[in-house]
Amino acid sequence: MIGSALVFYILSAFILVTGGLAVTTRKIFRSAIWLLFCLTGIAGLYFWLGMLFIAAVQIVVYVGGIVVLIIFSIFLTQQSGKDLPPPVRSRAILSALAVCIGFVLTCILLRNHTFGASLHPPLADHISVEAIGTQLLDTSEHGYALPFEVISILLLAALIACIVLAIRSKPEEK
Amino acid sequence: MPNTAYILLILLLPLFGFVLLGLFGRRYIRGLSGVIGTALLFVSTWCALYVAYNYFSGNTGMPALRRTYTLFGATWLSFGRDLSIDMGILIDPISAMMIVVVTVISLMVHVFSLGYMKGEERYSTYYAFLGLFTFSMLGLVLSSNIFETYIFWELVGASSFLLIGFYYDRPTAVAAAKKAFIVTRFADLGFLIGILILSFQAHTLDFGWLINNLSSFEHSPFNEPPVFLGLPLVDWGLILVFIGGAGKSALFPLHIWLPDAMEGPTPVSALIHAATMVVAGVYLVARLYPLYTLTLDVQQVVLYVGAISALLAAIIACTQTDIKRVLAYSTMSQIGYMMFALGTYRLFPPSLVDPKIGFIGSMFHLFTHAFFKALLFLCAGVIIHLVHSNEMKDMGGLRKRLPLAHICFLIACLAISGIPPFSGFFSKEEILSAAWRADKFIYAIALFTSGLTAFYMFRLYFSVFWNKPATGHPHAQPLVESIPLVILAFGAAFAGFIPFSHLLIVGGHAHSTIGLNAVPPVLIALMGVGIAAWLYYKQSDRPQKAAAAFRGLYTAAYHKFYIDEVYLFITKKIIFNCIGRPAAWIDRNIVDGLMNGLAATTARISATIKGIQSGKVQDYAWFFFIGIAGLAILFIYIVK
Amino acid sequence: MPEIPLHYILFLSTALFFIGTYGLFTRRNMITMLMSVELILNSVNINFIAFNKYLYPENLEGLFFSLFIIAIAAAEAAVAIAIIINLYRNIRSVDVEAADDMKF
């Protein structure tokens, strides 16, 4: 059992270190790669927690989709080689201060709150994809059919928005 | 009961003339303005004569003074429960007399100006202003409420300003108009404070109630009247009101504006500064006469100011060379007569003679003075028109050139000198007999002054109509200028026979005081005439020798006793330097500085905090976060 | 899993959240700001999953929420990239300090 705790500690250290590097490094491409590692670390955390499906979705969508998209946009804006400009000194210090204060505050709140243990037995040891899928399209009480449809509309809207935004406007004379 | 419609017509016709000619005269009815103005005033004069006739013939058998009618009292402005300014019309003996005087003299001036101001570019404006003045003066004499009097008082001052400065492209005229307005305004400050004191003590502004409440106030043994610096407050109020009257009537020491006011057109001087406006102060004191006779202190103020003015003006008039200025000082002197006559009541020893002689004499003299002074000014206008100059040295031997003006001027001079049977004799007699009974010293001053009056008036007469061979060219006098002269000459000659005391006070006898004590004044007057004739009948160096004999006094009198210089010194050195400059400094640096400082501070604060709107997303995110964190801390820890 | 109490995982997610916030405030490049936003979204995801696992293991609510958050984050990232590219075409820079036209 101590291995499980050790794994958790390693994973969280990995996540935090790569996350910190992602927001502080001067080179943009490296920042994207650190982000990639961080997201992979989070997927690892999900694996450790036993949520296999969400871990897989994390890797497929986030790492494989979003980070790739970010890297493409870096290429499109011709920024990959140059160094990022350093942040404004006063703002960096103030932000660090504010963030630390926020973190301490939230931790105090978390510490003082007692989370009760669960009352019911777990659903299953490993949740099958079939169960997730069935509940996703379920229309009864715990079903998620409506959010599913709404999400699809949202994705459609985002798609159209991206196309409209990114399209090059035609020149006036034909 | 006087007909309300006629009285309103008297008042409103000149006002209508002012509005009509003021708005449309310049462009549409240029040539006819004079005729329109005169016609309106003609109707107004007939109404006034009718109303006066009605009033004086209809009242018999009433005790004491003639009945007063208050025609209507419309509340205009009310300060609380018991004090309010009402607009009303009051008809009593002196106001009935005054409306006759004002309208008749105004009509004469209107007719005269048809010829005198012909060809003037601002002809219609002139008639509009004359209409405004007539309306204001009539309003003043007909007002039933002391505040209403103040309103019309100021209106009269404004019309006087407009008319003195009529030739506004002349800097001397502009300066004279300003001087007149400022001096009278300063006096009106006293008037206003006096009104406030009196109305506060009496809890009313209406004349009838004012007189009622304050007379009983003085004699009440229970109320101790409030005292300030030794004088009761009511006396202070009366003296302040008198100061206002003294300013408007050009009494010493507020007389400095009257000689300068001669810069206006001569018919204006005839109307305003001889016959009507300058007697407003006398009228005011007469209106409040029952109050002015209550205490000795107030009476003495009135008496001495009047007497000093009369004497001072007479001395100065003997040395002046500008015809209009001689007449101006003569006006001041005669008004001094009227004023000190109003101050003789308290000084009468118990006797059979009614102490109201002073009042009667004053009002009678006001009436006759209006006629002969207006006549003198109009003749002066004719003379000035002929020789194109105001100075006596340019005039001489004009009896051949202006025969009508000569006769009229002579009649007026005889009247003002008090030679029987002209009107001035009768009115001066009343005044002098009042003075005799009141105070022998004042009588001596008055007697000496009447001799001086005869002297300087005939000095003027002889210098203009005899003295040198005829100057100027023959000049046909237009009819419109002659008619007023003739009518006024009739008035100056025969107005003395009106039974004035009988009209003013029921039971007063007509000519009670003509007797042996009429002889000394006439003798002194004839002496003055003789000396003037000896000096000025023919051209000689006798005047210079006489002037040299009194050299110091002559120089001082010629420079009007340096009173103007004293005023100038006080205003320039004292008021401007000690009050004006510091006030301006405070206004510029402290008041403006405060405002500018406030504005600058606001601008600086604004410039400082506008940096929040930086346009950068991260700054906005930052503020967002701060806000949320602040709220979270607030609601979790502080607000339980 | 029982050896690690819930609030350890919550500490982790909180720390990740504030790292992301720090990045949001400090980074001058728009794309790196977007990356920081992704970190924040991920920290919320961790929260949901942890709560699901520890407090309500009999439902799948947390899992579904995370699923939807991932989907929405993807859409949002795509739209954000489109905006950034559009802005880059106009002002020729992805420096967020250069986009201050709404200044006073």
Keywords for this entry:
heterotrimer; A: 174 residues; mainly alpha; 6 helices; 71% helix; 0% strand; extended; B: 640 residues; two-stranded antiparallel sheet; 25 helices; 4 strands; 70% helix; globular
DSSP helix fraction of chain B:
over 70%
Shape of chain A: extended
Biggest sheet record of chain A: none
Strand order of the largest sheet of chain B: 1-2
Beta-strand residue fraction of chain B: under 5%
Total beta strand runs of chain B: 4
**What is the approximate shape of chain B?**
globular
The number of helical runs of chain B is 25
Question: What's this entry about, in short?
Answer:
With 174 residues, chain A is mostly helical. Chain A contains 6 helices and no strands. In chain A, helix 1 (2-24) runs antiparallel to helix 2 and helix 2 (28-49) runs antiparallel to helix 3 (52-76).
Descriptive overview:
The complex is a heterotrimer of chains A (174), B (640) and C (104). Chain A has 174 residues and is an all-alpha fold. Helices cover 71% and strands 0% of the residues of chain A. The longest helix of chain A has 25 residues, at 52-76. The mean pLDDT of chain A is 87. By secondary structure, chain C is an all-alpha fold. In chain C, helix 1 (6-26) packs antiparallel against helix 2 (30-54). The longest helix of chain C has 31 residues, at 61-91. Chain C starts with 5 loop residues before the first helix and ends in a 13-residue tail after the last helix. The mean pLDDT of chain C is 90. The interface between B and C is medium-sized, with 11 and 13 residues.
Write the layout of secondary structure elements.
The complex is a heterotrimer of chains A (174), B (640) and C (104).
Chain A: H1 2-24, H2 28-49, H3 52-76, H4 89-112, H5 129-136, H6 145-166
Helix pairs in contact in A: 1-2, 2-3
Chain B: H1 4-24, H2 33-58, E1 69-79, E2 83-91, H3 93-116, H4 123-142, H5 146-164, H6 171-202, H7 207-219, E3 227-228, E4 231-232, H8 233-248, H9 257-260, H10 266-275, H11 280-287, H12 289-292, H13 296-317, H14 323-341, H15 357-387, H16 403-417, H17 423-438, H18 440-465, H19 479-494, H20 500-504, H21 519-536, H22 542-549, H23 551-558, H24 563-609, H25 617-638
Helix pairs in contact in B: 1-2, 1-4, 2-3, 2-4, 3-4, 3-10, 3-15, 3-19, 4-5, 5-6, 6-7, 6-8, 8-11, 8-13, 10-15, 13-14, 13-18, 14-15, 14-17, 14-18, 15-16, 15-17, 15-19, 16-18, 16-19, 17-18, 18-21
Chain C: H1 6-26, H2 30-54, H3 61-91
Helix pairs in contact in C: 1-2, 2-3
